[in-house]
Amino acid sequence: MPIIKILPHAEYCPEGKEIEAPVGTSICEALLDNGVNIEHACDMSCACTTCHVIVREGFNSLNEAEEEEEDLLDKAWGLQPQSRLSCQAILARENLTVEIPKYSINHAKENH
């Protein structure tokens, strides 16, 4: 199983964390299943950008982004070339390092 290293984030993962997740799982599902309560306002249906992450290592091992995801990413805060919506980025066999951006465009936080 690949390992996801989550870089420290003041709200969601203050000390950073390393988790294991099965191949074929989305980054968002893996984070949520391991106690990292990343925002996902659209319930992982690729309709918002609140689960935006930056994949610092292992980006090329992920499935290719669909046009719908790319269009949404254009609206994400802090967009970078390695940005993905974590609900759409599916794990392969390679380990990842991800950063959860400091901000989101979501005006109201969801309590998931």
TrEMBL record:
Keyword check for Transport: yes
Lineage: superkingdom: Bacteria
Obligatory cofactor(s): [2Fe-2S] cluster
Ranges of residues in domain 2Fe-2S ferredoxin-type: 2-104
Pfam family membership, one: Fer2
Family: Belongs to the adrenodoxin/putidaredoxin family.
Name of the molecule in the record: 2Fe-2S ferredoxin
Organism the protein comes from: Comamonas guangdongensis
Taxonomic placement: Bacteria, Pseudomonadati, Pseudomonadota, Betaproteobacteria, Burkholderiales
